[in-house]
Specification:
- The protein has one helix at residues 21-26, and strands at residues 4-9, 12-18, 34-38, 53-54, 59-60.
- A three-stranded antiparallel β-sheet has the order 2-1-3, with no helix packed on it.
- With 67 residues, it is mainly beta.
- A hairpin with a 2-residue loop joins β1 (4-9) and β2.
């Protein structure tokens, strides 16, 4: 099963990777900082993208203001 993790810096997603939790744990030098699993196609969960906000439970898309 493919798993996805988002790196969060100061509450904002800065990177998203396809990687397993086991690989991340075995390679802590490559995955420093705060990482949270993100899900594609799971009801009630938002897939993270760069610039999204982590609210402590889920990812929130940035608000784009119309001009």
């Amino acid at each position: 099963m493919t798993t996805y993790f988002a790196q969060v810096t100061d509450g904002i997603v800065t990177d998203v990777r396809v990687v397993t939790a086991e690989f991340m744990a075995a390679n802590p030098d490559r995955y420093q900082g705060e990482w949270h699993e993100t899900f594609i196609g799971v009801e009630g969960k938002t897939y993270a993208g760069i610039g999204y906000t982590w609210d402590g439970t889920d990812f929130v898309a940035p608000i784009v203001e119309e001009q």
